């Protein structure tokens, strides 16, 4: 299992389109993916779960991956959070 803390630096956080993009990316992996925010853990492959976190710009979230491709999943999802969601907000 791998855990990584990341800061949401896109304007809207994990809402609507950014959440959908995150879930789409998470579903590419066999590993179980979870997202934690403010003491709540949700399934990172569930759009309802990710959106229910109410994670906003500037907040820290924890990405968790457990499975055979966990390293690749964490790297990809971290890159998406850090660099790939900004274009959606524009």
UniProtKB/TrEMBL annotation:
<keyword id="KW-0963">Cytoplasm</keyword>
<dbReference type="GO" id="GO:0005737">
    <property type="term" value="C:cytoplasm"/>
</dbReference>
<keyword id="KW-0598">Phosphotransferase system</keyword>
<feature type="domain" description="HPr">
    <location>
        <begin position="1"/>
        <end position="90"/>
    </location>
</feature>
<dbReference type="InterPro" id="IPR050399">
    <property type="entry name" value="HPr"/>
</dbReference>
<dbReference type="InterPro" id="IPR001020">
    <property type="entry name" value="PTS_HPr_His_P_site"/>
</dbReference>
<dbReference type="InterPro" id="IPR002114">
    <property type="entry name" value="PTS_HPr_Ser_P_site"/>
</dbReference>
<protein>
    <recommendedName>
        <fullName>Phosphocarrier protein HPr</fullName>
    </recommendedName>
</protein>
<dbReference type="Pfam" id="PF00381">
    <property type="entry name" value="PTS-HPr"/>
</dbReference>
<dbReference type="InterPro" id="IPR000032">
    <property type="entry name" value="HPr-like"/>
</dbReference>
<dbReference type="GO" id="GO:0009401">
    <property type="term" value="P:phosphoenolpyruvate-dependent sugar phosphotransferase system"/>
</dbReference>
<comment type="function">
    <text>General (non sugar-specific) component of the phosphoenolpyruvate-dependent sugar phosphotransferase system (sugar PTS). This major carbohydrate active-transport system catalyzes the phosphorylation of incoming sugar substrates concomitantly with their translocation across the cell membrane. The phosphoryl group from phosphoenolpyruvate (PEP) is transferred to the phosphoryl carrier protein HPr by enzyme I. Phospho-HPr then transfers it to the PTS EIIA domain.</text>
</comment>
<dbReference type="InterPro" id="IPR035895">
    <property type="entry name" value="HPr-like_sf"/>
</dbReference>
């Amino acid at each position: 299992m791998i855990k990584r803390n990341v800061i949401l630096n896109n304007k809207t956080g994990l809402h609507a389109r950014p959440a959908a993009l995150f879930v789409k990316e998470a579903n590419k992996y066999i590993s179980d993916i979870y997202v934690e925010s403010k003491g709540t853990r949700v399934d990172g492959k569930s759009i309802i779960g990710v959106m229910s976190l109410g994670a906003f710009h500037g907040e820290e979230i924890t990405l968790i991956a457990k499975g055979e491709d966990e390293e690749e999943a964490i790297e990809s999802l971290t890159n998406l959070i850090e660099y790939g969601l900004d274009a959606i907000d524009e």
